[in-house]
Amino acid sequence: MITLQEYLSVGALLFTVGLLIVLFRQNAISILMGIELMLNAANINFVAFSNALGGLTGQVLAIFVVVAAAAEAAVAIAIIVLLYQNLGTVDVEKARNLNG
Amino acid sequence: MSAEKVAFFILSGLTLGGGLAILFSVRLMRAVVYLLVSLFGVAGLYILLNAEFLAALQVLIYIGGITILMVFGLMLTGPGQFVNPAESRLKAVAAGVSSLTTAIVLLLIVKKTKWPAGTQALAGDTTAEIGRLLLTDHVFAFEIASVLLLVVLVGVALFVRLARDGGKP
Amino acid sequence: MSELAAVLPGVLEKAGWSVPGGLVPVLAMFICASIVAAAMGLSAAVLVWAERKLAGHFQCRLGPVYVGGKFGWLQSIADGIKLLLKEDIIPADADRPLFRLAPYLVVLGVFLAFIAFPVSEKLMVADLNIGIFFILAVLTLEVFGVILAGWASNNKWALLGAMRAAAQMVSYEIPMGLAILPVVVEAQSLSLKSIVAAQSGGMLRWYVFQPPFFMGVSFLIFFLAGLASLKRAPFDLPEAESELTAGFHTEYSGMRFSFFFMAEYAGMILVSGLAAALYLGGWHGILPGQSGAMWFLLKTAFLVFVMIWLRWTLPRLRIDQVVYVGWKVLTPFVLACVLGQALMAYK
Predict the structure, then answer these.
(1) 20 to 30 A Cα–Cα from C50, which one of A62, A94, B150, C120?
(2) Closest residue, chain C, to B66 (C-alpha)
(3) Is residue A87 less than 8 Å (CB to CB) from chain B?
(4) Does the beta-carbon distance from B152 to A75 stay under 8 Å?
(5) pTM
């Protein structure tokens, strides 16, 4: 039997890995991958709670998170492609035009 | 050690290992493959948690949709971008320290909190029940999600038009 | 598989082998996996021969005649041996690990889908309660394998073919997935076993013949979208040999190439079998009371024949026509079918 804490620990560690990727990488697509990992970590927690408490609301919430993640990925990729067309790079450190 | 436990450790290993491999991979295309491995691990964890529907949804949306989108994004952002730009050392240290702090805090929370004990485990065909919940208790969120998707559809179409006209509105 | 796991201890005891109790399910899994893999390989071999023979006759030729006697029925084995003996070339500038990984991913997608393949009431590996949804989900692995193959080859034709393939397969997944919905609404289940069981009682109970034919239309849409997601003619743009050499598998040779080939033919059986199970009554016969794996295989074979027939009859579409048909014809029609069926179910 795997306890709730173990699943939550995996979720916490996956969130940390995602955060590390977002903070460490400068490539916009890498950052997007990190964000997806963080959303997945949240989903693991939702589903773990749903299983531990015997209700399905957690799974329904996880479905909404997946929908939001898909929408976010579509918009992000579109923005990245536009960024590349305008600046010739997808390095987020170079996109500083709005930074005063 | 039970078979469930072994499966749990293998799947969490895949999930976390895939995530770490993204962090250290220099070629972005391989990073996408590692992301695939990580997402597969998460789908396996869902199956262990009796959420088969969500596991299939995870494979369908993430692997069939999001990773493919990322590959397209990679291909459309030029051959020079397949290798990640170098990171500065200060940034790496800062990222490491803040992530480590987050990990410690989160794990402490997980360990110290008294989680409520389970009432009953999920069993049987949960798909119909999920569908019922989506269209009764959570119908408002369901509608909002469809509005979100419509907005994204229109927004991305506008972006594509901008890109075709050379980035000028 | 659960039946096999239940029978297995007795069989093992008779054979005089002692296997620890915990290993029996694992053994059952291995046996099932090997059967599925063998069936996939064998059916691909038969289909390659059938396709060549039929193509010959459609074009007023004879097709293969020499290998193995009068009908050339050993032709696929000869082809297989030839492919095995060919040199396995990996281009110098290819991304080697990904280049090797891609064919396995393509085959894995189709292979996993066969887990829920309903040959007959007893002859299925596992009756998952999300059966049809599971199949749609794992089939998306194939798209990723194809795009990886195209990218890792480091070849412009392969890359163009892969991008075309991905665009086409992702767009046609939408009508394909939606075409299943009327059936799911009617059967009120995602499990293939219950969907087929709901169609018992003769030909007129098959979903394709149910008035007012919302499911009949969605059967046609499912079949067309399935053809497109298999990249078969008239939707074989990703491997259009006159423009792209061989598309995403241009750089593949030997056994790795044959993996793509096998995935295509196994995919044909999969799509035909799914269409037979979802709309044509699966293992139920024409008259009430008839049933058996034979009926399912007959229906599948007929649909595979139609696929081959279409391939050697119709010319290839242009890429804009393919995208047009997917988004502006099939998707609206299938949405109308879903809506109509949902209204029928609303009482």
Answers:
(1) C120
(2) C144
(3) no
(4) yes
(5) 0.86
